[in-house]
C-alpha cells in the first residue's frame, strides 16, 4: 500500500466500524462491514435488526444512522469516496411511486467529497442556569422508560424545593405527517415558555436521537440545556450533538441498569444524582 494517495485501508475501516457498532449497541441493530475497495476508496456496510431486542423502536433512524457513520468514517478516512449502507428498514419502492412494505433493502449510496473536512462545530455548552429560584424549568420526558418518569418525579421535588417552577412535556417519538407536525409545534411552544430544558432519556439508538434533537432545539435558542443519557449511550449522544454542530451539549449520565432496578432503587439513585444534574446544567440552589 506504499504510495497510496487516495483510497482507504481496510484495517482502519474495520476498526472504525467496530467502534461504531459498539457505540450504537447491538440491542438496537447490528452494523457490519462488507466490501472495501482500498484503492477506489469505497466502503460497503449493512445494518440489520435481526438480532435487535426491541426492533425498530430502539434503532437509530436510517438518516441519522447514515449521518453518524459518514461523519465518523470521514474523520479517519480522508480518501473515502463512496459509502453504501444496505439498511433492512428501507422500504422497497413500488411502481406507483409510493413505498411498499419493508423487506430486503435497496442499497443506500452516499458519494462523498474526498476534499471535504469534518466541521468541528460550536463547543459552547450554552449558558449556565444559575439560581433555581423563580426559574421555569421544562423537563422533556418520553413514552418509553418508566424509570425516567420515576427519576424525573424525584428531581421535580428537589427542583421545586429549591424554588424552581417545573413543567413537563411528553415526546412520542417517530410521529410523521400532520400528527408529527402538531407534536413538534407543541414542543416548540413548550420550549418557548421555559428558562431551561432537561431532555431525556437517551437509552437506545432512537430515543438518544430524539432526546438529543429536542435538547438541541432548546440549546440553539440560547437556553440552559442538559440531556440525560444512560452510560452506554453517552458516546452516541455526544456523537449526535457533534454531528449537528453542537459538541458542547451538556449531558448528565445515569446508569445503564436504571430500567432493570426496582422502583425504590431508581428513586434513591435519582435523589443521589440530583447534584450531578445541577452541575451539568450549571444550576445552584
- The level of helicity is 25-40%
Overall structural domain count:
2
What Rg is obtained from the alpha carbons, in whole angstroms? Answer: 21 Å
Count of alpha and pi helical runs: 7
Structural class: alpha/beta
CATH topology of the largest domain: Rossmann fold
Strand order of the largest sheet: 9-8-10-11-12
N- and C-termini, Cα separation: 60 Å
Q: How would you sum up this structure, described in words?
A:
The protein has a 5-stranded parallel sheet with strand order 9-8-10-11-12, with helices on both faces. A 4-stranded mixed sheet has the order 1-2-3-6, covered by helices on one side. It has a two-stranded antiparallel ribbon with strand order 4-5. The N and C termini lie far apart (60 Å). The longest helix is centred in the C-terminal third of the chain and has 19 residues. The protein is built from 7 helices and 13 strands. It folds into 2 domains: 102 residues, Fe-S cluster assembly (FSCA) (GMP Synthetase, Chain A, domain 3, 2-Layer Sandwich), CATH 3.30.300.130; 155 residues, Rossmann fold (3-Layer(aba) Sandwich). Strand 1 and strand 2 form a beta hairpin. The N terminus is likely disordered. By secondary structure, it is an alpha/beta fold.
Amino acid at each position: 500500500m506504499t504510495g497510496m494517495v487516495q483510497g482507504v485501508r481496510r484495517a482502519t475501516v474495520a476498526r472504525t466500524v467496530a467502534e461504531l457498532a459498539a457505540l450504537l449497541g447491538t440491542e438496537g441493530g447490528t452494523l457490519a462491514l462488507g466490501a472495501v475497495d482500498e484503492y477506489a476508496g469505497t466502503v460497503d456496510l449493512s445494518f440489520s435488526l435481526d438480532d435487535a431486542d426491541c426492533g425498530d423502536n430502539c434503532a437509530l433512524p436510517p438518516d441519522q444512522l447514515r449521518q453518524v457513520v459518514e461523519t465518523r468514517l470521514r474523520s479517519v478516512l480522508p480518501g473515502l469516496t463512496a459509502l453504501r449502507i444496505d439498511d433492512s428498514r428501507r422500504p422497497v419502492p413500488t411502481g406507483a411511486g409510493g413505498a411498499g412494505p419493508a423487506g430486503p433493502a435497496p442499497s443506500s449510496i452516499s458519494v462523498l467529497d474526498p476534499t471535504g473536512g469534518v466541521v468541528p462545530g460550536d463547543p459552547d455548552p450554552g449558558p449556565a442556569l444559575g439560581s433555581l429560584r423563580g426559574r421555569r424549568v421544562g423537563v422533556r420526558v418520553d413514552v418509553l422508560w418508566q424509570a425516567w418518569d420515576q427519576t424525573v418525579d424525584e428531581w421535580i421535588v428537589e427542583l421545586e424545593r429549591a424554588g424552581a417552577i417545573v413543567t413537563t412535556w411528553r415526546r412520542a417519538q417517530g410521529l410523521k405527517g400532520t400528527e408529527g407536525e402538531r407534536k413538534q409545534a407543541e414542543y416548540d411552544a413548550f420550549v418557548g415558555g421555559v428558562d431551561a430544558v432537561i431532555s431525556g432519556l437517551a437509552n437506545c439508538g432512537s430515543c438518544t436521537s430524539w432526546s438529543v434533537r429536542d435538547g438541541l432545539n432548546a440549546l440553539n435558542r440560547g437556553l440552559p440545556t442538559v440531556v440525560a443519557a444512560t452510560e452506554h449511550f453517552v458516546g452516541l449522544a455526544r456523537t449526535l450533538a457533534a454531528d449537528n454542530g453542537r459538541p458542547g451539549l451538556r449531558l448528565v449520565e445515569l446508569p445503564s441498569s436504571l430500567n432493570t432496578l426496582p422502583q425504590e432503587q431508581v428513586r434513591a439513585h435519582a435523589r443521589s444524582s440530583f447534584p450531578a444534574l445541577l452541575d451539568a446544567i450549571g444550576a445552584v440552589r
